[in-house]
Design goal:
29% of the residues lie in helices and 24% in strands. The chain has 3 helices and 6 strands; from the N terminus they run βαβαβββαβ. The protein has helices spanning 19-27, 59-71, 93-104, and strands at 2-8, 40-47, 75-78, 83-85, 90-91, 108-111. The strands form 2 sheets. Strands 2-1-3-6 form a 4-stranded parallel beta sheet, covered by helices on one side. Strand 4 and strand 5 form a beta hairpin. The longest helix has 13 residues, at 59-71.
């Protein structure tokens, strides 16, 4: 069984229900296609703490990151909303910093949920 986390941006809350991410997961499409035929456990649907909040500088974000580490996911999937520039598909610096922590603990990071980028 694959254990995953989905990471999204709080700015997307104005327009996002998370439905696209879960529809792709449930249908094993887009970034979740590699899990076809596999059981998946969603450990968390995490949001960063917003622009200007970096690990090591924000206690709340540090707690969220530690909570994810303690859950031992195999993979963290990033929503397209984590991009600083949707056209260039560049991650915002806060998300990049969080991803580096996950990767340093052997957790793979996939750029995509219902969108691949």
């Amino acid at each position: 069984m694959k254990r995953i986390v989905m990471l999204t941006c709080p700015k997307a809350e104005d327009v996002c229900t998370g439905g696209g991410c879960f529809a792709a997961l449930n249908g094993r499409t887009k970034a979740f296609a590699p899990y076809r035929g596999e059981e998946v456990e969603v450990l968390a649907f995490m949001k960063c703490s917003g622009c200007g909040h970096f690990p090591g500088e924000d206690k709340g974000l540090d707690e969220k990151v530690q909570d994810i580490l303690d859950r031992h996911p195999d993979t963290v999937h990033l929503g397209i909303c984590c991009c600083h520039d949707a056209k260039e598909k560049e991650l915002c610096p806060e998300i990049e910093a969080v991803c580096r922590i996950f990767e340093s603990h052997g957790i793979s990071v996939v750029r995509g949920t219902h969108s691949l980028f």
